[in-house]
Amino acid sequence: MANIIVDIINGQFLKRLILRNWKYMIFLFLLIILYISLLFGIRNTKRNVEKNEKLILELRSEYLGKFTRLQYLSKRGEIETNLKKERSTLVPPSDPPTIVLID
Amino acid sequence: MANGSQHNYVKTFKGIYYTALVIGAIITLRILFLQYLSNDILRSDDIYKKEKIPATRGSILSHDGRPLAISVPSYEIRWDSKVVNDSIFKADINALSRALANYFKDKTAKQYKDSLTKAKNNNRRYYLVTRKRIDQTEVEYIKSLPIFSLGAYKGGLRLEDKTKRTYPFGNLGYRTVGYISEGMSGTGIEISHNHKLEGKSGEQTIYFTTGGNWIPANGEPYIPAENGYDIRTTLDVYIQEAAESELRKQLELSPDFNGGTAIVMDVKTGAVRASANLFKKANGTFDETYNYAIGHPTEPGSTLKLAALVALLEDDYYDLNDSIDTGNGVWSYAGYDIKDTRKGGYGKLSVQQAFEKSSNIAFAKMVVNAYEKHPEDYVERLHNMKLVEKLNLDIRGEGYASITTPDDKIFWSKSSLPSLGYGYALTLTPLHTLTFYNAIANGGKMMRPYFIESYERDGIVYEKFDPVVVSGSICSKETVREATQALRGVVENGTGRKLNDPRYKIAAKTGTARISFDGGYEDKEGYKMHQASIAGFFPADDPKYSCIVVLYTKKIKKDYYGGDWAGPIFKNLADKIYALNPQWNEPLERGSQNAPDNPVIAPGRASDLSTVLDYVPIHDNLNIKKGGWVCIGQSDGNISCNDIEIDDHTMPSVLGMGLKDALYFLENQGYKVTFKGSGKVYSQSPAPGEECDGAGVVRLVLK
């Protein structure tokens, strides 16, 4: 036990473990770097996905908000009210449209 | 020297090594302390948690796919008063309050100021600024307001995501579309089909990352949310709106009305195209708050004479030309006086005339003459015609239709049989009555009324509901023909004359019934409640739509007749449906129409004009080239086609063009266009032919 502590304090274990197996240690080190990079990469991708999903929701919300207002304005009653406001002389049709057959 | 240098390196290395060793030891001790000794324990729940993925509630769509109810992401505006600096608050609170009051119009600026000041004094951290929610398009504006523009950490603005149920057409068909509360109570389709609309929420595990974000964890189970189905209804936005606006217009004419309903049904299928229900609120306005159409059974009155007529014709007791004596307008039977509207009575009438004039005496007498000995036969006949059949509607709230039967010792009396002849002693909802009329319009085939066409998701139909036949034939074809003739007579000569129109034929029957209240039809002071109604179909010779309108009054002394009050709603509604639908006119074939004497033809693209003019005879006199833009003029009755000159230095003419064509044409030449007015281009500046460089602004006046 005392030997191990001495080994650690004077750094002899580095000589034994690392300097003798330096190629393997470099390989391990690169693996760790790769692992961390991949983890960060995945995390960034997930964050982007979240961000884009939020953006899609916001755009959908914006679209639906505008769409809802447009639908309301497209009501015949609303159109007639707005035409009156504009003092338009347009009147609703009293006869049905006719289909024209095209070959 | 080399040894000394090497010694220094070793010393430095040792220094670094010992430092790293000490730091490592400190970190290890710190980890051990945090893990086993500290009270500030970090649990896995603080880093990982399960998150519910909410399902989007399905939309409710009209017959043509337009949304009647949709779920829209929205935001609640909350405010953290604690983060706002006092001096900033004092400086900007007035401006913020004014802006909020102007925008939302739900409180005054003073009320906003008072409530925000109170929240600030109480250090509220999650104060709800307004009950109104905003959508994404409004977020930028709210973020730009004083104080809020400082952001979450200095201005305290917090926008909380919520989903809001929105009704793009306002309260259109609201009683049918319905609503659902968080406590799962509600009405209409929203509650009846909630199991399909709500969808199934999903679940995922998320974890906390540095930077304060929660993101989905790897390798953990992920159950995606299953969005609710969209429900396509049978409602037609245009017809529904027409029904509601006509009903509202009429109800607002008299303070005596409590409410009313107008229903339009597709004859062949039983699909309900409109169901308008307006009920008078305490403030005197009308709103869709009570479903008269499906949930309000009353004695229908004279509209039910059609059922009596069909029974009498079907059982061969009478035909339309038989005569019946209605006397002087009062007929006493079993101690009760049965009266006609006309003072002095109608005297002798044919059955057809009795129906047209809606004689109570005639129908009471005919039913008594035919069924007095076996009243149960008449009741059975009404049952066989599925008049009081439970409709098993696809939305909740169907009212109970009932009929008094001879074996009912409590309610059946000698007066019950004649009463059944003119629409009393039984209760029907307006939809029951309409279903019966629809069966007559459909050649005797009774269809079940329905509101739901299909369950869909992303436009794909998952379940479709076909029309259901309640009875293949409620009476013979001959009886249907005679009943239609009688209904047509009502419109041509009888109580429904206001509905007569040379353009298309309406077949209908009016009804004016008294509503029973407090155990009678009239109180001691002479007050009574009326139900003015009309039911029928159009066009009579090839029915496409059936319709019923019923108006309900409060206790009054005045009479409200179906022909006078419900009739105009029916007629205006039918007119609007008529004007909308190309199926009323025969399609036009090439060359089948004569050209007008002075045709006005707007200038436009040669190819477009050529296609259109191909279908009118004047095309033979014109030589329209294949490409470019042309102007068609006339002089001395001769029509000519001229090219619109285009060159880079002269302003082309767009006079007479529609705005769409003029914009397309000029902007393709490189001009910018401004305009005012509506119609066709009346003048343009620079004027046609003026020198120009192919750029700049062209001002159009439309007229």
Features:
heterodimer, A: 103 residues, mainly alpha, 4 helices, B: 703 residues, alpha+beta, Beta-lactamase, seven-stranded mixed beta sheet, 20 helices, 32% helix, 24% strand
Characterize the structure shown:
The complex is a heterodimer of chains A (103) and B (703). Chain A is an all-alpha fold. Chain A has a domain at 22-85. In chain A, 77% of the residues lie in helices and 0% in strands. Chain A contains four helices and no strands. Chain A has helices at residues 2-10, 12-19, 22-73, 76-85. The model of chain A has no long low-confidence stretch (mean pLDDT 85). Chain B has 703 residues and is α+β, with helices and mostly antiparallel strands. Chain B folds into four domains: 2-41; 239-583, Beta-lactamase (3-Layer(aba) Sandwich), CATH 3.40.710; 586-644, no CATH class; 646-703, Trypsin Inhibitor V, Chain A. In chain B, the strands form ten sheets. In chain B, strands 2, 3, 4, 5, 11, 22 and 23 form a seven-stranded mixed β-sheet that branches. In chain B, a hairpin with a 5-residue loop joins strand 6 (179-180) and strand 7. Chain B is extended. Classes of the chains: A mainly alpha (103), B alpha+beta (703). The interface between A and B is large, with 38 and 47 residues.
Helix coverage percent of residues of chain B?
A: 25-40%
Terminus-to-terminus distance of chain B: 104 Å
Give the averaged pLDDT of chain B, no decimals: 89
- Helix count of chain A equals 4
What is the straight-line distance between the termini of chain A? 100 Å
Largest sheet of chain A: none
The CATH superfamily of the largest domain in chain B is identified as: DD-peptidase/beta-lactamase superfamily
Shape designation of chain B: extended
The number of E-state strands of chain A comes to 0
Helix content of chain A: over 70%
Oligomer: heterodimer
Share of residues in strands of chain B: 15-25%
